[in-house]
Amino acid sequence: MGEGPRHSHPAQTQDEPSDGAAKPRRDVVDTVLGFARTLRHAGVAASPDRVEAMLEALGSLDVLDPRAVYWAGRLTLCGGPDDLDRYDAAFSAYFAGKRPRVPPPNARPEVHASDAAPLEAGGSDADDASDEQELSVHASAEEVLRHRDVAQLTPAERAHLRRLFALLAPATPMRPSRRRRPSARGPVHPGRTVRRALQSGGEVTRLAHHRRRARPRRVVLLVDVSGSMAPYADALLRFAHVAARARPSSTEVFTIGTRLTRVTREMRLRDPDRALTASGSAIPDWSGGTRLGDMLKAFLDRWGQRGIARGAIVAVCSDGWERGGTALLGAQMARLRRLAHAVIWVNPHKARAGYEPLTGGMRAALPSVDHFVSGHSLAAFEELTVVIQHA
């Protein structure tokens, strides 16, 4: 069988069995409850009885084995084949690990079209057509929702969009490091080549090559939480949570308004609702004013020069409204551009028909921006993940 998830573990310890059966400790229970909430956001009906069944299964398994946790949840929390893909995506997002690419025990062999049995006499083609039509309508509605402006959604649509956010899978941008590793191609490694020659009597029979290793590039998200960005702040922070959970060691999240607040620790919480609640408690200037120039200067003075912005991909998520002087904003954006590998500006208003960046803040910032994108819908956030990956 293949390897299971290799990153963070869902729990750390177990209680000693008191009555012949091991029972999970409270940290395991909290972890499973948070994972069940994430599954419900993703559209899987992880009911309380299914959660209890998973906890009972974990009581007899090693909770430090990610593969055991994966199968315990898959066999108890999923109600049908339609839940499997959502479960895999939610497991990867919640535990920040790769789901095991192994078939389930006693899996049935694939049935090809040529091997399929004909329909029975009592079968109804109309029922199949009805099911296909229902799936098509559901897919079309979901596709429309992906492109809807999040500021114009109803509460029910917002709840559905949160479930779709759990399925976002941002890729990790990579950069070459100074360390090198053996490779079949690339520059010749003199030391290894000579050592091989000495082992064969001093004759060079084969050249040894090496190449640079790839390391994750740091991503920094600066999210504007001022009053003018209030309709989009929740979606932007949910995107930041997905990015932070996918790349916990190489993603930093800050909020900007009238104050600069680092919320990286809060964004690393597994459950998105708990992460946003913790971030909201830590942000003192929610829905306040906007001083982008001052906040960028504070970020660069305290964090940028210390290395967080150096060589990183920095995404500023703001509509560009600036209460302070635009000259300061322009100067700090130029300073940021000199430090960062790439600067991305995410403006939710960019997608509106006839939009032009005429505000003073946007006009001052754009000369130092490498990529100017919109952040108004789920489809726009999917596009943003691609821009970050290839920046």
Explain what you see:
- The chain has helices at 26-41, 48-58, 66-77, 82-95, 125-147, 155-165, 190-199, 230-246, 264-267, 272-282, 292-304, 326-339, 360-365, 378-390; strands at residues 174-188, 209-216, 219-224, 251-256, 260-262, 313-317, 342-346, 371-373.
- By secondary structure, the protein is of the alpha/beta class.
- It is flat.
- 32% of the residues are buried.
Give the secondary structure arrangement, pairings included.
Elements: H1 26-41, H2 48-58, H3 66-77, H4 82-95, H5 125-147, H6 155-165, E1 174-188, H7 190-199, E2 209-216, E3 219-224, H8 230-246, E4 251-256, E5 260-262, H9 264-267, H10 272-282, H11 292-304, E6 313-317, H12 326-339, E7 342-346, H13 360-365, E8 371-373, H14 378-390
Parallel strand pairs: 3-4, 3-6, 6-7, 7-8
Antiparallel strand pairs: 1-2, 4-5
Helix pairs in contact: 1-6, 2-3, 11-12
> Roughly how many Å is the radius of gyration?
25 Å
Number of helices: 14
Strand order of the largest sheet: 5-4-3-6-7-8
Strand segment tally: 8
Weakly predicted, low-confidence segments: 1-24, 98-132, 134-139
Estimated helix fraction = 40-55%
Helix/strand order: HHHHHHEHEEHEEHHHEHEHEH
**Shape designation:** flat
Distance between the termini: 37 Å
Mean pLDDT: 80
Largest sheet: 6 strands, mixed
Backbone structural class:
alpha/beta
Q: Note the beta-strand portion.
A: 5-15%
